[in-house]
Amino acid sequence: MALVVCAIVMLVGGIIAFGVVDPMVHSEKKAITSTRLSAGVTPWQVSVPKSGNRHHAGKALAYRLSAGNAVVSIFTVPHLKRTWSERIFHAGPEYFFDGHLDFQSDMACASEARLTWRLHDKRGRFPLSHEVRFYDLSVPTDSITLTAQLDGPTSCTGILRLIDPKVTNESRGGIGTGASLYTANPLPEVETTRK
């Protein structure tokens, strides 16, 4: 009887250890850069200072956008490590996307101006005083398509930024997965130099 209990304890311990060690050993995160563009409008890379919703400075893919115009970019997703669980259970890989999307206007735009966006199967529309945060957004393993259009008076122009876009093979789950809308940092972010 003691042998059976010992075997069960070892089995349960092994499963728990596997669940903890596998993500630590095989989790991987890679940035999406302009070099991953496979079709559509080519962005340039800019530096982004930290803000109320982003606690560190980073990089962004940037597009010049004016009212009535749209951008479409298709990015090839970088290859990530396969986890042991994918290999053992012959499951296909799962990739998840993290990042932010915002619009920095050149001058104040009318309050009715809106940015309509789509990233893979998520879409939305927000006032320019807001930004979208992507967290653990499930995406394909081959390519990701970003579409954005600026709606407003013709005088509204500025920079669309996809900030710190990354894919990972580890889902963290929890509250806020997918796409969430936040009020953007009210202070102007002036650093848009090309890198």
TrEMBL record:
Domain of life: Bacteria
Chain intervals for the UniProt region annotation (Disordered): 174-195
Protein name as catalogued: Uncharacterized protein
